[in-house]
Write a structure and sequence with these properties.
alpha+beta, globular, 5-stranded mixed sheet
């Protein structure tokens, strides 16, 4: 997989651009405000800085087989994604959709369902890559989950020539994965 170097500002712009995708369906400013922030940008920047994303070296890569790769991405350090299992940063989206409560939640989710029916393309996700080579989702969970959900339904998303999926990715050490578990416990509220 060929790579292109990225700056943190470029990576963060991918995050903000993803927040305004119309297909994702819901207004999240109220969520940011409930966490103590005045804007989506303030909320997401606070999260990115707490995760140390600004100190990382980033590359952009194309995912060659999204239907194979995306469901096998590990669910990241977010409380909302972790309510149906004990998130130790080793559960993939494919494993999560096998949990009956998680699957039922997906069936009525205001972002997962529309994304499984109309996947945005091209799209860019933000991931950390563990020393083992496994990916952890940092941004793009609803899109990743939509792919796993569609496969579980037996209706895999058809990625075509215009359906490129890219990842902004950086390496994380095993010791950093442990600190992500602390982040998971504290959440994304303003501190």
């Amino acid at each position: 997989m060929e790579s292109m170097k990225l700056t943190f500002d470029e990576v963060f712009k991918f995050w903000l651009d993803a927040e305004v995708m119309a297909v994702e369906g819901r207004e999240i400013l109220s969520v940011a405000k409930s966490k103590g922030f005045t804007s989506i940008t303030e909320w997401r920047l606070n999260t990115a800085l707490r995760l140390g994303m600004d100190t990382k070296e980033w590359v952009l890569q194309k995912i060659d087989n999204p239907n194979e790769t995306l469901p096998n991405i590990i669910i990241g350090p977010y409380q909302g994604w972790s309510r149906f299992f004990d998130n130790q940063l080793n559960t993939t989206f494919a494993q999560a959709v096998e949990i009956p409560e998680f699957f039922e939640w997906c069936k009525t989710h205001d972002r997962v369902v529309p994304l499984s029916q109309k996947f945005p393309s091209p799209t860019t996700l933000i991931l950390f890559r563990k020393e083992s080579g496994e990916y952890i989702h940092i941004e793009g969970g609803h899109r990743i989950c939509a792919v796993a959900f569609a496969q579980k339904l037996g209706k895999p998303i058809k990625f075509n020539d215009n359906g490129d999926v890219f990842v902004a990715v950086t390496e994380v050490k095993d010791s950093e994965v442990e600190s992500l578990k602390t982040f998971l416990r504290t959440g994304t509220d303003k501190k």
